[in-house]
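WARN no homologs supplied; continuing
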Amino acid sequence: MIKKINNNDREFATSNCLAVYEFFQDGAPIFCHEKLYRTASGSYFLKVETGPDSFYYPTNLGLWDHVEAVFSLSETEAKAWAERKLPVMDYCEIFGTPEEG
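OK structure emitted
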């Protein structure tokens, strides 16, 4: 389960940004900017900035509002995010070649 956590600047300063996913639609408030991080202790988290047409967007905000949030991820969730959002080569560079199964 993805759990929202407090934005901790120290955590970002000591973490390694592994990957960035961005989606923008010209002339519309539709955008998503996601960064996957790994801490020195091996924990993963996702920092998200997004507009209205996003999985992360709360329904009680207006059309032009945007949201910034940080979510704690397990390694399995981080890999699943990378599988959906990144090119295969980027995934392999971060997590290694996946086992066939």
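The two ends are 23 Å apart (CA to CA).
OK
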